[in-house]
Specification:
Bound molecules: zinc ion
CATH topology: Cytidine Deaminase, domain 2
Number of helices: 4
GO cellular component, one term: proteasome complex
Largest sheet: 7 strands, mixed, barrel
Strand order of the largest sheet: 1-3-2-4-5-6-7
Structural class: alpha/beta
Distance between the termini: 24 Å
CATH class: Alpha Beta
Keywords: Hydrolase, Metal-binding, Metalloprotease, Protease, Proteasome, Zinc
CATH superfamily: Cytidine Deaminase, domain 2
Radius of gyration: 15 Å
Strand content: 25-35%
Helix content: 10-25%
CATH architecture: 3-Layer(aba) Sandwich
Order of helices and strands: HEHEEHEHEEE
GO molecular function, one term: zinc ion binding
Protein name: Proteasome lid subunit RPN8/RPN11, contains Jab1/MPN metalloenzyme (JAMM) motif
């Protein structure tokens, strides 16, 4: 991944910088390489629009253990380049399907076309506590970086989550 990462001016504004915690989360995102690859490929296919999807797995004392990623429609067609609105019907369908399986929806990923893999204030506004939020930066149609975030205990900032291969 040698693609240059674009960083529009707004990502350096106080409004954007204030929502990112300097401290990393102590939790980890354990996810297989093929799941990460799928997120990147979906982001590239959807470019220049934002794509989004669900992380399916478990939450334990060490963080998130992901077994599957599933792309879901982005219903925001008006600002598809910089906003996503996850299809709620798809969310409910997958949630129902997982009932009793021991797995659940534990996060939401999305792409940032021509923007860094850092969350925006809008992302914070729609984020849920306890969810993992991977963001893949797609620059000129190519996956440039992938970082994962979660909301801190006070709900006012994102903390970065380290990504690792499952044990
Ligand atoms: Zn975003």
């Amino acid at each position: 991944m040698t693609t240059a990462v674009y960083e529009p001016e707004r990502f350096r504004s106080p409004e954007y910088l204030d929502i990112i915690d300097a401290a990393e989360s102590s939790n980890r995102l354990r996810i297989a390489d093929d799941c990460l690859k799928a997120i990147k490929e979906q982001g590239e296919s959807g470019y220049p629009h934002e794509i989004c999807g669900l992380l399916i797995g478990r939450l334990d004392a060490e963080g998130w253990q992901i077994s599957e990623v599933r792309q879901v429609d982005n219903l925001n067609s008006e600002r598809a380049a910089d906003r996503f609105e996850l299809d709620p019907a798809a969310y409910q369908r997958i949630d129902r399907e997982l009932r009793g399986s021991g797995l659940e929806i534990v996060g939401v990923y999305h792409s940032h076309p021509d923007c860094p893999a850092k969350p925006s204030p809008t992302d914070l506004g729609s984020a849920w506590e306890g969810f993992a939020y991977p963001i893949v930066s797609i620059c000129d149609g190519k996956a440039a970086s992938l970082r994962c975030w979660s909301v801190n205990d006070s709900g006012n900032r994102f903390q970065e989550i380290r990504i690792q291969e499952p044990a």
